[in-house]
Amino acid sequence: MWNLCCTRAPKDQVIYCCQLAAALLVIIVGLLNITFTEDDTCLWSTLVSGAIGYLLPSPHIRRDEPLLPDPPVQC
């Protein structure tokens, strides 16, 4: 538990909020640099796409459903 703004917050929440703020800062600065400059757009687009990929949840497959909609029938 950490003291944060006169309240106690779990360490995991503080770390999550700091990572989220850093990722949003990279996205905003990257989009501004892509929009207003013509130099190094490849660098900034890579940073923006990496930050967005970090924020999106990873896909997962449910184990209780078959992978294919119509599995083959054994004879």
Structural account:
This protein has 75 residues and is mainly alpha-helical. It has a domain at 20-57. The protein has helices spanning 11-36, 41-55; strands at residues 2-4, 7-9. The protein has a two-stranded antiparallel ribbon. A hairpin with a 2-residue loop joins β1 and β2 (7-9). α1 packs antiparallel against α2 (41-55). The longest helix has 26 residues, at 11-36. The mean pLDDT is 80.
Q: Can you give me a brief rundown of this structure?
A:
This protein is mostly helical and 75 residues long.
Number of strands: 2
Helix content: 40-55%
End-to-end separation: 60 Å
Q: Let me know the largest β-sheet.
A: 2 strands, antiparallel
Question: How does the helix and strand content classify structurally?
Answer: mainly alpha
- Helix tally equals 2
Uncertain segments of ≥5 residues (pLDDT<50)? Answer: none
Draw up the topology in text.
Layout: E1 2-4, E2 7-9, H1 11-36, H2 41-55
Antiparallel strand pairs: 1-2
Helix pairs in contact: 1-2
List keywords for this structure.
two-stranded antiparallel sheet, 2 strands, 2 helices
